[in-house]
Amino acid sequence: MSWVHRMLTVANVSWRSSMPAGRPLALLVSLVVVPILDVVCQLMLGGSLNSPALARIGYAGGLVTAACQVATVMASGMTMDREEGIISQVLIRRPVDLAYWIGLGLPGVVAASFTGLVALAGTLVLNVGHSPSDFLRALSLLPTVLFAGSALGIFVGGLGLLTADSFAPLNAVTVLLPVAVGVVVPAEAYPVPLRWFATNLPLGVTVQAVEDYGLSWTAVLLAEVIRGLMEIAIGLAASVAALRRIRSGAYLRL
């Protein structure tokens, strides 16, 4: 019970410290308006490129955005804890504290569940003429995306502890990932070496599965879980490395 209590406490503090939490208008904008505008921009970009699969762009973009939102919430919470000196105390007491990381990610998972649903529904409404089965297909991939975003959050959060700028790994991932995994231009159009690289990136298989019905939901989930566990291991290893720096006196404050 103490583990669950600590996790829920971290989640509560993380949510209350987030900018939209105490502002209803900001909450409405971040959870509804921004996802819809993202969908509109993605569909317009696809239309300007004469893409024949605008629905795929909207659904893939919504899923990747949801994953990046989870990672962003986790990295932002970690940065605030770093500035307050909390993260160093957490690492000293428990070098691998899953309750802390899961609690840090829970608000992001809840928010991304809603924004992801809004983005997918917005694609269904704004891009008429495609089958509703595409919407259901993308919707079935949303839980996998939430797990992938949580793993990505631990990954970039852990790496951020080793850098002077905690947001540097997060910014690199959120900017490059949508392009790399083929949200607008499908990975199938990439040269063979880049195609293999894009498919093996986080969310690469998920984006491919939006249009490829030959990939089963379980196969996508298994691929993302295996990749996510590797990301979690790297992120936690980076946090342990940061702890060693604290104990060696390399820096006193993360």
TrEMBL record:
<feature type="transmembrane region" description="Helical">
    <location>
        <begin position="98"/>
        <end position="121"/>
    </location>
</feature>
<dbReference type="InterPro" id="IPR013525">
    <property type="entry name" value="ABC2_TM"/>
</dbReference>
<protein>
    <submittedName>
        <fullName>ABC transporter permease</fullName>
    </submittedName>
</protein>
<dbReference type="Pfam" id="PF01061">
    <property type="entry name" value="ABC2_membrane"/>
</dbReference>
<feature type="transmembrane region" description="Helical">
    <location>
        <begin position="141"/>
        <end position="162"/>
    </location>
</feature>
<keyword id="KW-0812">Transmembrane</keyword>
<feature type="transmembrane region" description="Helical">
    <location>
        <begin position="25"/>
        <end position="45"/>
    </location>
</feature>
<keyword id="KW-1133">Transmembrane helix</keyword>
<feature type="transmembrane region" description="Helical">
    <location>
        <begin position="169"/>
        <end position="187"/>
    </location>
</feature>
<keyword id="KW-0472">Membrane</keyword>
<feature type="transmembrane region" description="Helical">
    <location>
        <begin position="225"/>
        <end position="243"/>
    </location>
</feature>
<feature type="transmembrane region" description="Helical">
    <location>
        <begin position="57"/>
        <end position="77"/>
    </location>
</feature>
<feature type="domain" description="ABC-2 type transporter transmembrane">
    <location>
        <begin position="35"/>
        <end position="210"/>
    </location>
</feature>
